[in-house]
Structures are given as C-alpha cells and as structure tokens.
Amino acid sequence: MNAVPKQTIEQPLMPKSGTPMKKYSSLFFILLSLVGVIYSFMIGSAALAVFTLLFLCLFLGLPIAISLGLASFAVIYFFTTDPLPDLAGKVFSGLDNFPLMAIPFFVLAGNIFTTGGVAKRLINLANAYIGHLPGGLSIAAIMSCALFAAISGSSPATVAAIGGIMIPAMVKFGYPKSYGVGSIATAGSLGILIPPSVPMIVYCVTVEQSVGRMFLAGIVPGIFLAGLLAFVSFYVAKKNKYPLSPKATFSEKMKALRESIWSLSLPILVIGGIYSGLFTPTESAAVACFFGLIVGFFIHRDLRIKDIPGILVESTKTTAMLFFIIAMAMVFAHILTLERIPHELVSVIKDMNMGPIAFLLIVNLILFIAGQFMEPTAIITILAPILFPVAMALGIDPIHFGIIIIVNMEIGMITPPVGLNLYVASGISKMSLVDVTKATGPWLLATVVALAIVTFVPQLSLWLPNFLYGLQ
Asked: CA 309, 314, 315, 318: dihedral to nearest 10 degrees?
C-alpha cells in the first residue's frame, strides 16, 4: 500500500528554490532534454522522442503521470498512425484488470489501521519484549515498523505512525534525536517489502506474475532486513553507551501481547487466506478492510464514525493518484511495444554476452538512479516492461527479479531528493531534510548490504513461495 497520510506523493524534480548551482544544473538538464527532443524529431526516432520528452517534462517539474501522458500522446500523434480516440480504449483495457482492484482496498485498509490505534499497541508489544536491550527503544521501533508494515503496507504511513510516538519517546529517554529519526525513517521502508504491498501488485500486473507468490517472497527478505536494521541500532547504541530501558515484567509482557493480538492477526489472515485458497489477493484486501473496521470500532474502540469521511477522502486521493500513474504508464508501455524497445534491448544484451550478474548490477544502478527522482509505482510501470524480458532471457526468476526491484524502491524512499520517508521524518522531528538524510546513514548502508544479498542469493526470496506452493 502507498497510503500516505496528508503527504504529497509526487515531488517535482526541479527545486522551487535553491543554490545557483542547483538552478544552473536544472537548466542544463532541461536544455539537454530539449536538444534531445529536437534531434529525435529531426531523425524521426519515436523511441528517442518518447524518452527525451519524458525527461524534459520531469525536469520542468511536472508530475510523473502528467509527464508520462504528455510524452506518450505527443509521440503517438507525431510518429504513429494510431488514432488518439482509440487510446482511451487502451487505457481502459489496461486498467480493467482484476488484481488492480486490490489497490483501493489495501489503501483503505492501511488508512483504517493507521487511524485505529494499531501503532501504539504494536509499540507497546515490541517495547515489552526487547526494549531493555542496548538501543532497545530503537530496536522496538524497527520491529514495530515491521509489524505495522504487514498491516498498513505503506512506508510513509509507517514512519508517521511509529515515528510520531517513538521519536519523542527516544529523545525523552536520552537518545540523540538523529539516532531515532535515522532508524525509523529507514525502517519505515519495510512497508513496501513486507506484504501486503501495492508496488508488488503493480509489478505482478505489469509483468503478469502471481501476486500470492510475490507476497510470500517478500516475507523472508523483509524479516532479514528488519533484523539487519535492528543489529545496526544495537551496535550504534552499545558503541555510544546509550541508556538502557528497564526490563518489563512477565505480566506487562502478557498484557502487551493481549492488547496487540488482533493487530497481529491481520497479516496472518491476509497471507493465510491467500495461500489456503479461501480468497484471492484482491478479495483478501476487502477482507482486511472489513476486519479493520471491526477491530477499530468494537475491539480497540479507537475508531470513530467521524473518522470515516477523512479515511475515505485520503484513500480516494491516494488511489486516484496511483491509478492515474498506471493509466499513463499503460500508454507509455504501448509505445515501447510498438517500437520493440524491449526486444532490441534483449538483442543488445545477448550480443554483449552479458551474464545475469552483470545485468543485475546494471539493473540495480538504473533503479537506484530512478529512485532518486520518481515514485515506486511510476518506476515499476515504466522500467519493468523494458527490463523484464531481458531478465527472462537471462534465466532470472521473475519473482526474484520483482523482489530486487522492490528493495531498490525501498532505498529510493530514503534517499533525496524524492525520498518520501525523509520528508515525513523531517516533518515529525522538525529536523532539516539534510540532517534527516545524514541521520539515516548507518541504516541506509545496511539496506544496501541487504540489496546485495537479496540480489545474489535468490533463495532468500524464493524458498518460501516455492516450498508452500510445492505443498499444494
């Protein structure tokens, strides 16, 4: 899920203000893109035109969806014989996909649980069991982020919900603010790796893969990354001799477990229901919404009737934004198919005799750069149709390739200039964006290490879906 509470998801590439160097560099890229557009029209290259027009729009500061649409429609109008009215049918047929129906439901479920008091119960649970360790409050926050990610599925929402409670608590206890902000801003990125996850659904729809397998493939890497981030918190706290929390009593642990049991049951319900065949991933999203309302209204009693209009409005705005990106990306993908760009790329890779390892290194570099400037849904819908055929030609497992993309999207969420988690953490902590970015350093390094392991150890992602689906 990408339900982001009152945050603007699409950030312009061109800064509204900044140093003269930033302004000159932006102007340089705009002029470079403009030259590329003119040259592409001179030589009659639709492939070059669509990419240069896309970059020109992006560097001018237009949102991703608008940039995709303008570039695609311009190329179709000037370079093809496709009638523009027929494009409406292509957009509609692209969105008329049953798995895509899961997106609005998972977004709604995420907002319901974000509002329904789930975060504080998960934090109490984590604190009760591991809060007494060196860096215990930070480790508890990371574990809370992992648990909340399995409920909300949104990275920025995870940062907002957990960080809003834990950052002040850590500062009050004696931790440096940068320590708490850095760990939570990074751990919030688990929201798109631990299922349910809208970027996973978008990937599966784009390349026609199993959503159930993709969800299962994200569990082990998500747990592994959470453990790696917790180790960094432990190491930094022990090295700097940060204060220790008192150890919780047995009764306090049992109380925290009882209060959080309903929150913990949602991921089991969703993943268990999909695997057991009780419902599809799309149906599981609707079940999650219903379950969230029951828990919020009648069990936790933190949800009020007056909260519902706000939840619906935020969910509608997020869903509309995501579907607008997907719709425009469908048109963009249509041009890629017409120009046979994926096929040409496959041929080039084969002629270069590039192996899977070299290809994956290049893919990680491309995705890292893209993550600095675009939102995960846009990156997946633009690049997956181009890179996926090459990955298949090299024998890379499609689910493993999807997890590599998702982990790269996590890194994009915590790196400027469009790292959404950084903006949310900055707003919560009142720290500058530069200071928040510096604070994430140790945990960002751990995430890069996790990406390398996920990339070159496929079984970390594949053994669970292969094992469970092999039992059926």
From this structure: 160
CA distance 167 to 178: 9
Number of H helices, E strands in the chain: 22, 0
Cβ count near 446 (within 10 Å):
20
Over residues 401-460, the pLDDT tens digits come to 999 999 999 998 888 766 778 888 888 888 888 888 899 999 999 999 999 999 999 999
Residue owning tokens 């340089």:
28
The residue type found at 181 is V
Predicted TM-score of the model (pTM): 0.79
| CA-wise closest residue to 102 among 23, 31, 195, 193 | 195
Q: Same domain, yes or no, for 65 and 106? A: no
Same domain, residue pair 52 and 125: no
Domain boundary residue, one of 317, 344, 377: 317
Q: Do the beta carbons of residue 390 and residue 350 sit within 8 Å?
A: no
If phi over 0 gives left and psi between -120 and 50 gives alpha, with beta otherwise, what is residue 241? left
Distance CA 99, CA 238 (A): 46
46 and 116 part of one domain: no
